[in-house]
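Q: Can I see a sequence and its folded structure?
A: Here is a first one.
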Amino acid sequence: MVSGEKRTDDSPNIISRKEWGGRQPKSQAPDLKFKPAPYVIIHHSVSPGCKTRAACQLKVRQFQNYHMDKKGWSDIGYNFLVGEDGNVYEGVGWDKKGAHSIPFNNKSIGICIIGDYRNRTPNAAAVQAVANLIAYGVESNKIKSNYKLLGHRQTWSTECPGNSLYTMIKSWPRWSESP
């Protein structure tokens, strides 16, 4: 669901790239090789979180600038980002190959929860927003109904999504011990 569409209580409030002030990508992201996506990969930003739309929009613009200007990527790396304000921020979006976990980029939806979750878990608003986004993805045939949920550390040598968040996602539906 994108802003402007009719919203129900359990649908995600997706803030479009235009709404958060996203730059034009250097090149268009290629389509996912596998659709609907068979994997959902959870990340954290290892940065201070955000609890207001204005603060989260600023963070998302900063991530995009970092990915494009410092890493040399064509766009922001994630498909979606989630703030502790309870909003979902569109990255490269549905059906597009992100740049968030190299061996899984062409077959996953990468969701970054904005914040550092090494020693704490995201608030209830962020957790609910992720759940609503995934459910919406399944209902919209953007994510396979039997998808596997993984933490970034399961697909790449990293501590992401932080110990506390990783422990939390192990209890989420469809978490898989092995990719």
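Q: Show me another, different protein.
A: A second, unrelated one:
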Amino acid sequence: MYNYNKKPLLIFYETTKACDLQCRHCRASSISEPLPDELNTKESLDFIRSIKYFGKPYPVLILTGGDVMKRKDIKTLIDEANYYGIPVSISPAATDLLDDDFLNYARNRVASISLSLDGLKENHDWLRNKNGLFEKTIDLVKKIKNMNIKLQINTLVYKRNIMDLPYILKILTDNKIDVWELFFLIRTGRGIDQEDLSPQEYEDVNHWLLFASGYINIRTVESPMFRRIIDQGNKNYSGKLYSDLVRSTISLLGEPEKRRILRSVNTRDGKGIIFVSYNGDVYPSGFLPVSLGNIRSTSLISIYQENSVLQALRDSKNLKAPCGTCYWSDSCGGSRARAYSYFHDILGYDPACITGYL
């Protein structure tokens, strides 16, 4: 049994804020060069080395950004994780920096690469704020798969791309993608906030994801309600949006050949997940901006195991109703980041979940 009070399952390290894209939903303002307080190479290596003190099996280290490819020492960081046997994955931007030389280097050194695909051409390029990025991403998908590198596709779910989801699924199955991870919007005070789904839309889309899991391995981010829906099943579910998505999917892919047995880990922000920012500040997740300390002065192990905010987040009895009184309070518990973005309360209820309105 994995003890989430002792160590996380996933450590996200935002290696840099620098990125050449200007995505509409990004929680960070776009900058082309690293910020002056970014962890330097030595500090980054010391941090990566410290992960071994969590003990085996080591947490998975996910190198994110910004764009990880803007770190000139990215290979050095990956090599350090490899040296200690710490599993490492990377989440680069789809730019020319992700070239053949790096992919050839990474193929035997990273557990997986993740790329973002957020709709068909119009919607993907709109969200990423760059024309031609859809084609660039598809080219990279094909190249990475041809190199036999495990590839995960990340997709932000927002109002205007909902009906693109079956078409994205077809692209992924055609290219034999390993995992599809869908991110649900967290309000960041930007114009993209108006693209957030209603509770009924959240319910319908998550039920469709259960149906879609017959075609591909699916994970969700900031939608822990998916675990409730896995438990409930959707045999008798008939939401209109859900039905529209199912019809579109079957028309593109036919009926799924089999129903997967889904086993979801009961993680949430701060429980099995921890985020280290570019300057060493630690947060429960990249979407929950409540600072817990800084690894320049306190070890990540101490922060993760001893911080009172994290201890409160992990105990579902502390959550406010309806999340705290729900049958699925421990396995789901609602998105803590969404509760914070709406109510400035990390223990508040998740306003995306329809059970709070019944």
